[in-house]
Fold these 2 entries.
Entry 1:
Amino acid sequence: MGWRPFGRQDRKYDELLVKTARETVGPNIELMVDAGGSEQFWPHGLNWARETAKMLANYDITWFEEALPPDDIEGFIELTKQSPVPIATGEVLTRRQSFLPWIERRAVDIIQPDCTKNGGLSESRKIAWCAFDHNVLMVPHGWNTAIGVAADLQLAAAQPVARYVEYLTPCDYIEDLTTEPFEIDAEGFLKIPQKPGLGVELDHDKLKKYRVT
Ligand SMILES: [Mg+2]
């Protein structure tokens, strides 16, 4: 959960949102909070992020994402040291060279490369192995298309430690683009396609809906 209105009113309202979500899903569902700090004019700095992380720990939040603007590496290093919940970011970074300082300086607990922005699967693989070597968890950022999700699944499956792939729903670009759409099972798992390549095929009839003429 996250982005607006989280982080946009006041601390009490943020806590109400998280408390409501936790009470709704119960104690045994993993819940992550994405502040959306890569949105333009993000108003918060380290103090807000640190205090919010303490609040999130009271609701057993699995990770706290983009709590700061995406280029505030010094802020993230401090936050990762101090936060009682794991800290995540990286979805807007491009090229492996941009990821290296975040991983090597331990600015995050979880790094989130987006294979449709960072240079592709080969680049993602290098980032993921670097993260593994530094004991940082890699969770691919899947908020793009069915092709991106298919690539994320193959990437995650090829890593020694893979716990999550982000999956956006409802979203036609993800759920209504391929011949065999992804389906989440009752426990929240996606099957990794076994066919050659990314394992998915574009449905060209469905694709016509998105054509601009
Ligand atoms: Mg995000």
Note: The first helix runs from residue 11 to 25.
Entry 2:
Amino acid sequence: MQKVDVLIVGGAAVGSAAAYFLASQSDFKGSVMVLEQDFSYEKCATALSAASIRHQFSTPQNIQLSQFGSQFLKHIGDYLAVDGDVPDVGFHEDGYLFLATEAGREVLQSNHRIQKAQNVDVALLTPEELRTRYPWMQVDDLVAGSLGLSGEGWMDAYGLMRGLRRKAMALGAQYKEARVTALQREGHRIVAATLSDGSSVACGTVINTAGTGAAALARSAGIALPVEARKRSVFYFTTSAQLDNCPMVIDPSGAYFRPEGKGFICGVAPAPEDDPECYDFDVQHTLFDEVLWPTLAARAPALEALRVQRSWAGHYDMNTLDHNVILGAHPEVDNLLFANGFSGHGMQQSPAVGRALSELVTYGGYRTLDLQAFGWERVLKNQPLYEINVV
Ligand SMILES: Cc1cc2nc3c(=O)[nH]c(=O)nc-3n(C[C@H](O)[C@H](O)[C@H](O)COP(=O)(O)OP(=O)(O)OC[C@H]3O[C@@H](n4cnc5c(N)ncnc54)[C@H](O)[C@@H]3O)c2cc1C
């Protein structure tokens, strides 16, 4: 039976970030294998992501994860160049703008205090300031907006994942196209992974970065991971309207839109009662017709005239406890590390989480960011660490 020191199950953004940071970690001397069931990557969240990055969270640790994400994107060549070839991750540092009506004023202000304490470059704008900055925006119902002035924006998620993967391989990580059907557990340890062809790979440590496949993998090792697939539809549209300096806009309703190429993308979460666990990829067109278009046209009247060119659906790996990542080992199994339940913010967190996983493997603890708050303890004690700013 083949044996590796670290086996990573799921080789998209987070798995590849873990592989890259491990392979580049001088204190780590072992072998790394990434098992990925689909090298086309066409159905994973990474490939279907809205791929945006913000520092405007309500949880300090989420802010810190994204702050490192921005640094990583800005200096991508320092990390991921291979033989001088720097991957194009398409980082647009054009900001997030959270808009608030009276009902959301207090939350916006409370988040602002948390963000300022974390040195986030963010400004609260009055409706008048919003109107001046964005003449195309309808602000009559607003009391404030919170604008990220640097570090926030969007990226090419697929480009980042390919860059991480290529560099990890260049540094010696091995990628194999294979589906893991079960983890073989003996007492407090995982000893091997069983693949769909019936073969097994023995391992020192396993990292579960299987996205929406993570819960099934955990279950095979006797662990209940509270992560479910939740469908999110994204619509790409073009318009002749000019929305100058348009950032990623988060409407008070929860709907978002931002520039993408020659047009825009937009989306909104379905109402909780219409948001069951779901694995199909059927786009929820009614969300566009009944929610998004009216909301966008009310916020930016010029968007009355638009044309949807393309749409797709992907899945959040939703942590049903508190919408935050579950990171690190379960107390019952020493050598199985989790990085699951990103609930819609895993792209921006992938560099920092990959680094954190490499620290857990190499040193048995965190060395840069203290991310213990994201550990299993809160899950097992049913003490949620709620992230308020989920988009
Ligand atoms: C529509 C949408 C919009 C989003 N917008 C944003 C955003 O704006 N900003 C942001 O930061 N995040 C966003 N996200 C979330 C983000 O894309 C994800 O959190 C992130 O991509 C998760 O990466 P991952 O590597 O953990 O999981 P995935 O990308 O899902 O990858 C998991 C991989 O594991 C593989 N796998 C699963 N099971 C097995 C198995 N048993 N054996 C082998 N391989 C397996 C899968 O094939 C897959 O490639 C969005 C997601 C969606 C769907």
Note: The chain has a mean pLDDT of 97.
